[in-house]
Amino acid sequence: SVLVAGNTNTLPVVVQWDNLVVTSPEQVIYAGSITPVIDKVWIKSVARPFLNRAVDIRDQGPINRQARTGVFDIVGRSLPVAVSDVRRSPTWVLDLRAETPDEADNLDLLLASGDTLLIQAPSTGPLSVVRGGYVTVGQTARSWLTSHGPIRIIEMPCTEVAPPGPDVVGATVTWAGVVASYATWADVIAAHETWADLLELIGDPTDVIVP
């Protein structure tokens, strides 16, 4: 029932209903799940999500599986004996392209964290050939394409590893980030009323490097 502004009835207006039934006004408009569309390759840190970056892939090297087999010569026999085991996990080199020095620095800081990283690639399209999964990164190298201005190439040798355990919980900020943002504890309390508010602070990639 609506009483419009131009109503000329004598106030107060009394409205009565018979057999009134009250129901919840909530109505489900959509029920289901939304799957995000990934059109780029992402490198993600499980422990430090604020380091996550979409990257430009220049090249992916061959995928290798190192053998764990020993071959032993036996006295008096021409044929050696092989002692074998399952091969190691796949290894490969991923070359990342950075268009600007800042982008190259941010990628370098991501790798400097030393965390187990997640490579997430699109499921379709040309970039779907990029191998995804959890990796540990070996010794990296950064080179400069002198004929292409400021473009840097970062070599990222990857070894596929087991996913981090459930005890690894992503943090949006580190203690180093808090110290860098606030001069005193009083400043922290003034800016954040609760611990939950403080945990919502988003860190900076340089926070993972403590001088």
Main sheet summary: 6 strands, antiparallel, barrel
Series of secondary-structure elements, N-terminal to C-terminal: EEEEEEHEEEEHHH
Which value, in Å, is the CA radius of gyration?
29 Å
The number of helical runs is 4
Number of strands: 10
Summarize the helices and strands and which ones pair or pack.
Layout lengths: L40 E5 L7 E8 L3 E2 L4 E3 L8 E3 L6 E9 L2 H12 L4 E4 L12 E5 L3 E4 L7 E9 L14 H7 L3 H7 L3 H5 L12
Antiparallel strand pairs: 1-2, 1-7, 2-6, 3-6, 4-5, 6-10, 7-8, 8-10, 9-10
Give a short overview.
This protein is of the alpha+beta class and 211 residues long. The chain has 4 helices and 10 strands, in the order ββββββαββββααα.
Overview of this structure, please?
By secondary structure, the chain is α+β, with helices and mostly antiparallel strands. The protein is built from four helices and ten strands, in the order E-E-E-E-E-E-H-E-E-E-E-H-H-H. Strand 4 (70-72) and strand 5 form a beta hairpin. It is elongated. The strands form two sheets. The chain has a six-stranded antiparallel beta barrel with strand order 1-2-6-10-8-7. Strands 4-5 form a two-stranded antiparallel sheet.
